[in-house]
Amino acid sequence: MENTTIVETHSLTKRYGSGVLAVNSVDMSVRRGEVYGFLGPNGAGKTTTLRMLVGLIRPTSGTATVAGHTPGSPAGLARIGSLIEGPGFYPYLSGRENLKVVADLASVNRKRVDEVLDMVDMTSRAGRKFGTYSTGMKMRLGVAAAILKDPELLILDEPTNGLDPQGMAEMRKLIRDIGQGDRTVLLSSHLLGEVEQICDRVGVISNGTLVKQSTVEDLIGQKGVVVKAEPADRAGEMLTRMFGPAAVSREDGFFHLKTDPSASLEINRQLMGAGIAVSELRPFERSLEEVFFQLTGDKQGS
Amino acid sequence: MIATIKSEWRKNRFRPAFLIGSGLTAAITLLFYSVSWYQATHPGSAESAVSILTLYPSNFVSNAMGAGFPLGAALAIVLGALLAGSDYSWGTLKTVLTQGPGRLTTWTGRVIVFMAWMAILALVMFAVGAGYSVTIAATQNHAIVWPAATVIVKGLGTIWLLLAAFGSVGLALGVLIKQSAAALGVGLVYLLAVEIIAVRFIDGLNNGAYKWIGDLFIGQNATALTQNFAGRTVTSSISAEQAVLVLAAYIVGLFIVAGGLQRVRDVT
Question: Which residue of B has its CA nearest to A55?
Answer without folding.
Answer: B98
